[in-house]
Amino acid sequence: MSTEQTPQSAELRAESVERELLGFLEAKTRKSLTPDQDMFASGLVSSMFAMELVVHLEQTYQVAIVGADLKLDNFRTVQRMVELVLRLRAASATVGRA
Hints:
Number of helices: 3
CATH class: Mainly Alpha
CATH topology: Non-ribosomal Peptide Synthetase Peptidyl Carrier Protein, Chain A
């Protein structure tokens, strides 16, 4: 049986990460959010909260967010965080196979 992932399974994973992040953020902010909403520009979260987001993403998705990936733009929207998580997970899977 092949362990390669299809675009559909990657898409489902993105949806799962998006759902989880929206739930986490809505619980923290007590506001309803959309995946493309800039949470910092709208004043829902602060730059201090960004560090809590980093810890949450690292612990929940077993990724390391360091260096250039720590820029605020990666945490502005749920969509950007999903992209970051998926990119880091893919990179760590590639390194793990090398």
